[in-house]
Every structure is written in C-alpha cells, then in structure tokens.
Amino acid sequence: MKLVAFVSDYRMTVDTLDRLKPEKLGIILVQNGVYHATVKDKGNPSPLLDYSADYYVLKDDLETRGYTASDVVNSKVKVISFGDIVDLMFNDYDKSAWI
Amino acid sequence: MKLVAFVSDYRMTVDTLDRLKPEKLGIILVQNGVYHATVKDKGNPSPLLDYSADYYVLKDDLETRGYTASDVVNSKVKVISFGDIVDLMFNDYDKSAWI
Amino acid sequence: MATTKLGFIVQRPGYKSENPKLALTHAIASQSVEIYLNEGDLVTADIAFIGEGVLNCKKDQKAMETYDLSSTESHIKMALLLDLNVLVCREDLERYGMTENDIVIDAEEFGADMTVKVVPYAEITKMMEEMNHLLFF
Amino acid sequence: MATTKLGFIVQRPGYKSENPKLALTHAIASQSVEIYLNEGDLVTADIAFIGEGVLNCKKDQKAMETYDLSSTESHIKMALLLDLNVLVCREDLERYGMTENDIVIDAEEFGADMTVKVVPYAEITKMMEEMNHLLFF
Amino acid sequence: MGKLTIGCFASLVGSLNLDFAVKLSAAAMEKGHKVDLWVSGNGTMISIEEQRPFKDYSSLEKPLKELMDKGLNVTACEACAEARGYHDSNTLKGVKRFSMDWYLGSTFDADRVLHIGGE
Amino acid sequence: MGKLTIGCFASLVGSLNLDFAVKLSAAAMEKGHKVDLWVSGNGTMISIEEQRPFKDYSSLEKPLKELMDKGLNVTACEACAEARGYHDSNTLKGVKRFSMDWYLGSTFDADRVLHIGGE
pTM higher than 0.90, yes or no? Predict the structure, then answer.
C-alpha cells in the first residue's frame, strides 16, 4: 500500500509509525507536528525524520507557530499547501493515516 | 513546599515531574495514570514510580479500566478514594499540580 | 455489488479520550449502513488494537459502576455479537505483560459466536493492506 | 489587605490545545479581579513557560493570517502591557536551540515597560515556592 | 473546614476530567468543605441544559444539580461558552456565567486550588 | 475528479482539527473534488449555530456556510450531538444529523478517506 501519514504532535504518544511498513510512505507534518521540521532537541534533529519516507510540512501550520520555510532544518522536508495535500492524497498515495 | 501532583496519562507528554523538587512530593495516579501502577512495559515497572514521593492510585479509576487493588504492582502505591484525595490535599500538602 | 472495507486501528488507551469507544461504535454502525447503499453493496469494518490500544481490551472494566458509563469492554462484546472481526496485537499484549486471560475474548453470555483474535502484528499489517481505507484512533 | 499569588505554569506547546492561550487570558484577568474582592485585597498572576511550553514564545506567529485566530504571541504581549511577570526557562530555550532573539521579549509597540525574563529554571522553582497556588497548563 | 476551588479547562467530554471534577467536588462537600467549580474552554460543555443522557457518554446534569442544591458553586467562562454557541438561554439552571476574573477571585480565599488543565 | 470523505472526531475546539478539516475541504473542492465532512464526538461542536466569533477562539460558521453553499456535505453524529445538548433546533442551517452509519456509507464510494482521530 501507499500510505500518507499525518503527524500532528511534537511529543508523540504512539509508536505506530515504527511499525507501518507500506510499500511507499509519505509523512506530512501538520499542527504541532511542524516542530519536527523546525526544532532540534539538545542539538539533535527529531528522530521522526529518520524514517524512509517522503517528508512534507504544511506552510500554514509553520507560519502559525512563527516559522517560515527557511527555518526547516532538513532539506528533505518539502513545504506544501493545503492544495498540495489534496494532490498528494489523490495522486501519490492510496490510503491515509492521522497518527 | 508540599506538592501533590496528579498524573492522568500513561504516555507522558511533559517532563515536569523530573524537575519539581518540593520538600514533600505526593503523586496521585488518576485516569490513565493508573496504568503506571498496574502495567509493566517489557517487564519493567513504570519509571514514574522511581521518584522520591508518596504514591497513591484512585480506586475508581483502577476499576473503570478493569483492575483491582491486587493488580497494583508496587506495594508503595496506596489505593485511595476521592474522599482520601480531599484529605491528602487539605492535610498533607499545600499545593497541587495536575501534570 | 461492491464492498468497501474499512480498517479501524485503535492505538491509544480508552477513557482519557472518547476515540477508542467511538472507533467501536462507528465500526458497529457498519451493520446498518445498507440504508445508504444499493442492494448488495456493503461496507465492512475490521477492528485492530495495537500499541497501548490493547489496554482497551482488559476485562472486568467497571465504568458503569464508577462513572455510570458503558465500558469499552461492553462495546467490544457488542462488536463480537455483530460478527465483526476484532484483532489484538499479540506482541503488544506481551509488551504490557498481558495474556489472553486478561482480556475480553468472547461474548458467550450474549450468544456471540465470534471471538477476539490475538494475532501477531504481521497479521494486522496484512489486514491493513487488504482494506480500502484506514481509520486510526 | 491581603494578596493571593497564583503561578501559571505552561508546559505544553500551543494551538494543539487551547490551554496555553487560556493560561494567558486567565492570568491577564488578574487585572480586573478586584470587583470580587474587598478594597486593598489582590490576586496576582505570574506566568512561567517551561519544557515544550517555551515554544509558545516563538515570535512572528501568523495565527491571524492563517487561521483568523489571535496568536499566543499577541497574548504574551498583552500580559507584558499589563505588567505581568512573564518568565521563560533558559535551559529549555537552549534545549530547543532557541535564543532570546527567537522569542517575544517586549511589547514596545504597545508601550509596555515590562519585558519577558529569560531565567534559569532555579528561578522558576523559586517563583513556584513563593506562590500560594499553582496552575499547570 | 476549608474552601476548595477547582478549575476544569479545555478538555474532552470523553476525557472524564469533568466527571473527575464533579466527583471530587462531591467528596469535598461531604467532608464539609465549600467548593467552587470553574469551567473554562471546552469544560463549559458542562454548563448547558438538556444534554440527553446516554450510557455511552458522560452525563453530569443530574449529579451536578444535586450538588448545586447542596451548595456547589458552579461558574462557566462566559466568553468560552459564547464562542461555542452556549447562551444564557440554554444554560443549566444554577450555573453562573462570568468573566475569567471570577476564577481568580475564587482563589483569593481558597485554602486549596486544583487546576485541571492538561490536554 | 474524485470524492474525499473526511471524518473529524472527538477533539478540542482549541486543537484546530476542525479548522484543518474545513481548510482541507476547501482546497479539495477548489480542485473539483466532492467532499463529505463527518463530525463526531466533540467535533459536533462545529454543527451549532450562533457561535459568537471572537478572535481568541476558532470560529468556523462563516467558512463552513460558504463551503456548504458550494456543495460541501456536512453531517454531524446525532447521538454525539444530543449527548452534548445540541439539538435540531439550534443546528446550523445546512448541517445534517444522522447516525454513525452515515459516515460509513459516505466512505463506500469515496476515493480517499481522511479520518482525523488522534487526541
């Protein structure tokens, strides 16, 4: 399956992503999930960025929290819009998971 | 200060307890906090039981989740009622914290 | 004549949030969905408990006695009575020191034939692959 | 003539829950509490951001532009304008790689004299000791 | 005997936070304490009338009324309520609505304060 | 063009989950997709009228009405709403109320489903 997962928390309360092994995985950082893209904890980038996945972060939710695209710490995380989310869901993945 | 902290989650989302250093600390496990008293993770009792504190667990919240006093894994955790919480708050502690 | 398969995945413990219970009540609603569909069409619901979600399956929940609230246990039994497929991750039960004896397995008292299936996580992965849509709680 | 001192401790990031914002709006309400009190009596509110709560202090929050919602930043500025004591834990700012340049420090544009104080955690402990009651968010 | 002020904030109905607050109020009153209960954010849900009691959902109107009859002082944050579409006209009889300063005022002479925040 | 069914569940008003769902609905409709929005649990908060718009709280009545005018299909879980004291009489015009099976029915011919659960 081709699964796109939405991560909306910074402090994760589930381990689900560790075990999902879809053929193709996308991770969209939304809400407080955007901190994974902008904040280092004691100098270390978030382990959430270590999955073998395509990474996206929602521009609106970055900006709400005081960040811009230039604050994204890892170039593999692509800044996207709500419209891009729709296209990803319909064109690149067949199932979604709000973790 | 004499502080009584209420823990209502199993998967903690804050580190606050690591740093509170009151003269006297009480920890009351309520809601999903009761799992700290009844469940081991991979054989290990919850690290939440490692503080230098007096421990309590709310009987109603144990029972709601299918446990009884005999399921409490550590004898230092005392099973109490809502009435006991009131007495602890008024007689043994001067401040409270819902973590 | 078509079937849409939904997988309800419960990853968190109950009561602190309504979500695990709503997963069950919504899955159970698959039994009455035909009013919205053409004859022969179906929507099915499979349920899997993973991670701390397995704590929802503990038996002897006294939510009615303590908070005057129907328990998640009673909803699992209702799901069995209605022949829903209920899976519980074996590795996660073991992780939290639980066995089949600790969890709700059947609803014989209501005449349910279906039982909860304690399965390796690999089988839950397989279920997720087979579904058309997934709903994580 | 008596004073009750409240300590508002914000431990979680904002927006995902209303709580950090409600901490600020309630603390700000200390400015109008006298209608419930006898003359000369006071309730004061000190605010401290600790742990991931320090993320609430990031400047340039665009919540109004994105979600048509006043930002937590604007509420911090309001608290400064009303002369509330706002503390931010230095160790936690450092933990998340932030400096004073990244956070809201003053509300000069509104004419506030008060500034946010970045302090070692030990000072927040001291504040907590001095308070009559603590409110954790 | 003392005074306990409880604040119950932005929390899920399904979290049982409000149920906890009501049961703790009852226990404190039984021991002779005076109790003020402030609800704010989503906690204002407790303040509206005609919530249909189902066993699948927390239903607190009945215990709340019984406790208010015995002197429990319940106040909802007016702005939080209005923002959710809860108006004076459908507020449960006996529940007051004030600005946030009411909560702070209540703590002035409280012996103990339990602020139920969290998520 | 396809059909997207979004379910938004027991979540805080303050969590912005409902705001997210409404913005995603708008984006999908702009691209020509049909959108069904199901709200359940505390998500039913979106379904009542006369929520006073303050800038301190999410206020979705206006965008929701605009989207419903353009064809957004919004349905609230009837039992979840009734349990909270939200009745037919104060339901926002255009929002439907049905049993939970409506959500499952909506997924039948949906090309994509986004279920916003979480905490």
Answer: yes
